[in-house]
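Technical note accompanying the year-one report. For the benefit of new consortium partners, we illustrate the data format agreed upon in the data management plan: each record pairs a sequence with a structure-token string. No post-processing was applied to the example shown here.
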Amino acid sequence: MDFSPYEENNSVNKIFKSAVPQICKDEPCLFGIDEAGRGPVLGPMVYGISYCPISMKETLEKKAFADSKTLKEEVREDLFSQIQECNDFMGFEVDILSPNYISTTMLRRTKYSLNQISMDSAIGLLRLAIADGVQVKEVYVDTVGDAQKYQDKLKGLFPDLEITVTPKADSKFAIVSAASICAKVVRDKVVKSWQFPESIDVSQDQLGSGYPSDPTTKRFLADNVDPVFGFPRIVRFSWSTASKILDEKAVSVQWDDDEEIDESAKGTASITSFFAPKGANPRKKKHQFFNDRHISQVTSF
């Protein structure tokens, strides 16, 4: 599969998917969901799904699918190739969530957690498969956060599906193991071929594992922070490891909203008030808080 469209612009998310086998449109299917790259401070998080007919469950279980984290890289690569070769009864999708998207979403005015981002991706991939004609019947999900709450959320959105959300689903269900392999292999490929728009020359060895506790990764972060523009695009700047380095090495910024109010200026008309329509009531303008949350006043129910 060609991942060059993401390599050309790795600041945005990108979904790649296989063709849907006809048998997956004609027969009820198993559907597995898992992710790769949740914890690293470098690179994207990738959500993967895999599906096949329930009638092919025994065939699926004969393959050596397992939790991708327990497999060597060459084994994962071989299994991913097998998934693509089984295109007469298996399909998959991957959602590449860019580091830039993850950080800006988590740090926006209305805070959004990594668990929420993860659930959104999983739900989006499930909806996409259904829209493509996959006859989804049983769904198995490796949980993020509380498994029961996540399962209840999915059941509320997809009441006609049989849904199981559990920890370690990638080691319990072959279809989730296949999804895990898809996600892990794609993430590894994307990180290895990462294009740095900042024009820095960095080898894979200099990136380390990408995890915050890795000394090599920490060294990369410390050596590649610009005092004004921050980190290269591959860095999730919302991670505490990155935030601490920014606090130590980047230029401090004083935002206008952070300035203390001059007591002597209280009661003085704002300059913007001189541009308001004549007779306009400034109190009728909604605060940004309400606009951000789409809250409006109602007089009747």
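Partners are asked to follow this layout when depositing records. The longest helix spans residues 174-192.
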